[in-house]
């Protein structure tokens, strides 16, 4: 097919995902611009036609409002793609105004807001008859005290909205191993910082029992693609972000994900993560993202170019033919994975030779490094310094 590359793209926020899309679409001749904080790696790519860095001291959503809605028409006609939860909130809050001058996907703003609400996501899963972990609401001090002696540890104190929690605490959740007092302490800490939380059971089992399903559902209920992957390791273990992923078709994960997305009426892009509960063998929902994820480069390199597929769909072009790779690829964060290995070794769960064997493959995909586009490596280093001196 002949690709019409005339419609430009603006990436809002993100990190690994924004860089992957910028490199891929930019290399195809599509004009790609990016806007985000200093940690948005796409800002530094040679494939980024124009970068709009959010100045220090200004919130991203305030900056994007000025950039896109305050009378400046230079970016009119761009496809706007959300790379972060902040970006989803911005697009949802301003969707009607943006729709007149920009190209947006088919996402349902209310459903996207539900996915950002981690407790509401679990409620949607139950309604769709998809297995979910037990959880308990915390609307008051009375709710917290009522849990004493009634829940089985370990549990997690999980934020209603993860991106707000991460901005304050630099982590996704608090894990409570065995103490009602520690549970109360962490809940109160979150409340003092103005963050709503709830309690959810920790699904037992290693991180290798995590798997994900991706799709894009059109307005008429069709699917543009299906993709699955799984996790090998996370760091910190059992609570952090994945540091070693692998590709591979997982029919059970795909079926559970499709059931959930059909049940909730997804429109647009969706990613759902499950963990297999070793107690009953069931896949149980962990979270849902209505956007491109950090593993975007792995998905693309595995033969499913979802960024290009969505670009063609939104510009009215034929969907490109694609063939998922039969070869297993692995998405690797070397430093974080080494730290994960050290933690697992201290726990007696992984030897050095077993770790070395697990990484002894040439089928690695890296989130940042590229010999043909090295500047983002320096940009990422600058971003770390920028954050430490903020």
- What is the fold-level CATH name, i.e. the topology of the largest domain? D-amino Acid Aminotransferase, Chain A, domain 1
Query: What is the CA-CA span between the terminal residues?
Result: 48 Å
Approximately how much beta-strand content do the residues carry? 15-25%
Derived structural class: alpha/beta
Which bin fits the share of residues in helices? 25-40%
SS field, number of helical segments:
15
Total number of β-strand segments? Answer: 15
Our count of domains comes out at 3
* CATH homology superfamily of the largest domain: ATP-grasp fold, B domain
Task: Give the overall average pLDDT.
Answer: 95
Q: Strand order within the widest sheet?
A: 13-12-9-10-11-14-15
Computed over alpha carbons, the radius of gyration is: 21 Å
What CATH first level of the largest domain would be assigned? Alpha Beta
Low-confidence stretches: none
The CATH architecture assignment of the largest domain turns out to be 2-Layer Sandwich
Tell me the layout of helices and strands.
Blueprint (H helix, E strand, L loop, with lengths): L8 E4 L3 H12 L4 E5 L13 E4 L6 H10 L9 E4 L2 H9 L1 H5 L9 H8 L1 H10 L7 E2 L4 H6 L8 E5 L2 H8 L4 E3 L3 H13 L4 E5 L8 E8 L5 E13 L5 E7 L3 H14 L3 E9 L6 E7 L6 H6 L4 H9 L15 E3 L1 H13 L5 H7 L5 E2 L9 H14 L2
Parallel strand pairs: 1-2, 1-4, 2-3, 14-15
Antiparallel strand pairs: 5-8, 6-7, 6-8, 9-10, 9-12, 10-11, 11-14, 12-13
Helix pairs in contact: 2-3, 3-5
């Amino acid at each position: 097919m002949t690709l019409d590359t005339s419609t430009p793209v603006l990436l809002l926020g993100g990190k690994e995902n924004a860089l992957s899309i910028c490199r891929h679409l930019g290399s195809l001749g599509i004009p790609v611009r990016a806007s985000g904080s200093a940690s948005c790696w796409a800002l530094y790519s040679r494939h980024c036609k124009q970068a709009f860095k959010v100045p220090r001291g200004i919130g991203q959503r305030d900056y994007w409002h000025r950039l896109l809605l305050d009378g400046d028409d230079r970016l009119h006609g761009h496809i706007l793609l959300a790379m972060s939860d902040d970006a989803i909130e911005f697009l949802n809050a301003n969707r009607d105004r943006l729709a007149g001058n920009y190209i947006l996907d088919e996402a349902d703003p209310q459903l996207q807001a539900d996915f950002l609400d981690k407790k509401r996501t679990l409620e949607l899963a139950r309604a769709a008859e998809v297995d979910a972990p037990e959880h308990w609401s915390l609307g008051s001090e009375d709710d917290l005290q009522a849990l004493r002696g009634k829940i089985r540890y370990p549990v997690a104190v999980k934020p209603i909205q993860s991106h707000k929690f991460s901005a304050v605490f630099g982590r996704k959740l608090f894990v409570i191993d065995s103490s009602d007092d520690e549970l109360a302490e962490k809940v109160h800490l979150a409340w003092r910082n103005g963050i709503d939380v709830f309690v959810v059971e920790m699904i037992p089992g290693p991180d290798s029992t995590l798997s994900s399903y991706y799709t894009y559902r059109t307005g008429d209920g069709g699917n543009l693609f299906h993709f699955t992957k799984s996790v090998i390791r996370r760091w910190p273990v059992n609570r952090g972000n994945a540091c070693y992923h692998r590709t591979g078709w997982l029919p059970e994960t795909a079926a559970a994900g499709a059931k959930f997305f059909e049940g909730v009426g997804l429109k647009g892009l969706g990613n759902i993560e499950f963990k297999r509960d070793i107690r009953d063998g069931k896949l149980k929902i962990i979270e849902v993202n209505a956007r491109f994820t950090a593993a975007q480069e792995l998905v693309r390199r595995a033969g499913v170019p979802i960024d290009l597929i969505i670009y063609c769909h939104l510009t009215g072009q034929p969907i490109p033919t694609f063939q998922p790779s039969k070869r297993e690829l692995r998405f690797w964060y070397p430093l974080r994975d080494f730290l994960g290995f050290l933690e697992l070794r201290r726990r007696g769960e992984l030897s050095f030779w077993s770790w070395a064997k697990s990484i002894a493959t040439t089928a690695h995909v890296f989130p940042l490094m590229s010999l043909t586009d090295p500047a983002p490596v320096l940009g990422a280093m600058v971003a770390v310094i920028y954050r430490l001196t903020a």
